[in-house]
Write a sequence for this structure.
């Protein structure tokens, strides 16, 4: 098995400025994160909002510049190459909210045609390819003429998936692909992603705060807390024997229904309150890193 | 016994989707200001286009003199009365609309493409592009169009073309600022980022992804603007900087008629009223469109 994507020591700092615009410190949104994804596997990146999950996705897509570290695709560093067309042919992303990732003024067909045109599919073949892609995500071909507001959330997300698949990428980043959908729709979209992954031999980076989804979907899990990966390993082992307090906290927060699952619920004192703000974070930094070392 | 044929459950036809255009028309037609505004605008445009066929004395457009009929008050024969050389004011008002509307068309025809493109560039690229474009806009915004037109007329010559160009040279600023502020908001939207990661060109992102989302704001702005441009144009010709006599122009008519106030009030008041109505029509239409599209960006 070869690594499709390797992330090495990836770091992103956001400067914090005081009222006069003077820099007073940095928020370490992503702090020395390393992981790798095997070809054809699903890597799950778990963590609550503010933990830096989306920043990692944005850096891999070239929408944000890393402060430090390296991103390697098939063994080649792609820093400075992210965002180019050649890169976009290999790596694509499905955004969190299909309501805002599809242009409200463009039909589904027009939206799917964007990557086709950009990557050199001749105009005459667009219609056929759009129909094929819609079929791939189990939507009828006549949806091509509809506008996003005429579709349900699940249908919109299917369109977004079809659009990302238009360039036949090898790696697909799923940034909370189902968090904007209701639970019943969620399951169907996840099934579709599993099927597509198998059919097309896709590699996934699956980003979510939803651990129950992750458990069913990911082969390997990394748990992200305040910008650092605090625990990583095969999904089953992380879920059965969480090593880090934060992982246990996350697992304990998963709503469970069956008695069997209830029995597995770890009993640890829960941390109260909200995730800290950027300013508090800096102050908390030292304390947190000590805890991580333990 | 005859076998009773069970009617199969009628497959429910898929709910017919109302087309966007129809929905919009329905909402538009329920909005009285918009409908009145649209009616005035359409009437004014039709009247201007059909002027030679619908006016009673089309020959009065030129240098016709009929001293026996001078200074006649409004009557069945001369609806708006006659002017100091005996020409029908109604005829000249309808022909005068042509100049006003032409002015609005030319000024906005230049200002909208220029202003929109600059606004898109400044809003999307940011950085020094934004600084250069927006500071230029601020400078241009500081000059009143009327003053600019006066200056241009003083340097070149007082005629319609120069005045139009002078106004157009400043009018784009409003569109730049409007489109700039919308583009700034849209730039960070996921659909723009999605287009970027999908390899779309900058041209595509600006004109195919962002611009379509500005169209409703532009429509509102354009309609409101048309009213303002007509007012500015009328002020210019009132000052003698518009089209030169004997071609009829509403502002010029107000100016020349004002010499005979208050005795022959119709000579300046009725052309003035025509300016007011047309400007009002465009404004009502713009307000109506704003309600229809729910656009907040345009003041």
């Amino acid at each position: 098995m070869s690594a499709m994507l390797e992330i090495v020591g990836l770091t992103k700092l956001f400067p914090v400025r005081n009222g006069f615009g003077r820099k007073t410190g940095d928020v370490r949104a992503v702090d020395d994160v390393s992981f790798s994804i095997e070809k054809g596997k699903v890597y799950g990146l778990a963590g609550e909002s503010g933990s830096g999950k989306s920043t990692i996705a944005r850096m891999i897509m070239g929408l944000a510049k890393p402060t430090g570290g390296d991103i390697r695709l098939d063994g080649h560093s792609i820093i400075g190459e992210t965002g180019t067309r050649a890169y976009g042919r290999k790596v694509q992303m499905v955004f969190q909210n299909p309501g805002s990732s599809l242009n409200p003024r463009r039909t589904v067909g027009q939206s799917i045609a964007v990557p086709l045109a950009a990557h050199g599919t001749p105009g005459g073949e667009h219609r056929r390819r759009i129909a094929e892609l819609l079929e791939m995500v189990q939507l009828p071909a006549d949806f091509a003429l509809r506008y996003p507001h005429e579709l349900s959330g699940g249908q919109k997300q299917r369109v977004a998936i079809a659009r990302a698949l238009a360039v036949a990428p090898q790696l697909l980043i799923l940034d909370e692909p189902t968090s904007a959908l209701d639970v019943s729709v969620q399951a169907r979209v996840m099934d579709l992603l599993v099927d597509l992954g198998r059919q097309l031999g896709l590699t996934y980076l699956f980003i979510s705060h939803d651990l129950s989804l992750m458990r069913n979907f990911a082969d390997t899990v990394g748990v992200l807390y305040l910008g650092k990966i605090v625990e990583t390993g095969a999904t089953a082992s992380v879920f059965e024997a969480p090593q880090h307090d934060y992982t246990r906290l996350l697992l304990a927060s998963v709503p469970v229904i069956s008695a069997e699952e209830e029995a597995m619920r770890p009993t640890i004192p829960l941390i109260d309150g909200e995730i800290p703000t950027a300013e508090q974070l800096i102050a908390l930094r030292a304390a947190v890193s000590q805890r991580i070392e333990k | 016994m005859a076998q009773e044929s069970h009617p199969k459950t009628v497959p429910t036809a898929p709910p017919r989707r109302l087309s966007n255009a129809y929905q919009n028309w329905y909402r538009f037609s329920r909005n009285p200001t918009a409908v009145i505004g649209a009616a005035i605008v359409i009437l004014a445009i039709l009247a201007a286009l059909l002027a030679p066929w619908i006016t009673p004395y089309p020959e009065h457009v030129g240098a016709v003199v009929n001293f026996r009929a001078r200074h006649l008050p409004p009557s069945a024969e001369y609806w708006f009365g006659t002017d100091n050389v005996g020409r029908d004011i109604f005829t000249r008002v309808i022909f005068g609309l042509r100049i006003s509307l032409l002015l609005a068309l030319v000024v906005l025809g230049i200002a909208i493409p220029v202003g929109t493109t600059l606004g898109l560039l400044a809003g999307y690229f940011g950085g020094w592009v934004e600084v250069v474009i927006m500071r230029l806009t601020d400078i241009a915004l500081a000059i009143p169009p009327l003053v600019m037109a006066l200056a241009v007329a003083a340097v070149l010559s007082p005629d319609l073309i120069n005045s139009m160009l002078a106004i157009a040279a400043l009018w784009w600023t409003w569109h730049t600022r409007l489109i700039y502020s919308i583009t700034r908001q849209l730039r960070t939207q996921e659909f723009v980022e999605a287009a970027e990661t999908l390899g779309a060109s900058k041209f595509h992102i600006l004109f195919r992804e962002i611009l379509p989302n500005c169209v409703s704001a532009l429509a509102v702005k354009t309609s409101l603007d048309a009213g303002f441009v007509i007012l500015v144009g009328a002020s210019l010709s009132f000052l003698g900087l518009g089209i030169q006599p004997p071609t009829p122009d509403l502002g010029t008519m107000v100016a020349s008629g004002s010499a005979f106030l208050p005795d022959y009030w119709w000579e300046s008041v009725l052309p003035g009223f025509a300016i007011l109505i047309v400007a009002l029509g465009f404004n009502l239409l713009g307000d109506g469109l704003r309600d229809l599209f729910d656009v907040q960006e345009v003041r």
Q: What stands out?
A: Residues 1-16 of chain B have pLDDT under 50 and may be disordered. Residues 49 and 98 of chain B are 7 Å apart (CA to CA). The first helix of chain B runs from residue 20 to 29. The interface with chain A takes residues 17, 20, 189-191, 193-201, 204, 208-209, 212-213, 215 of chain B (CB under 8 Å).
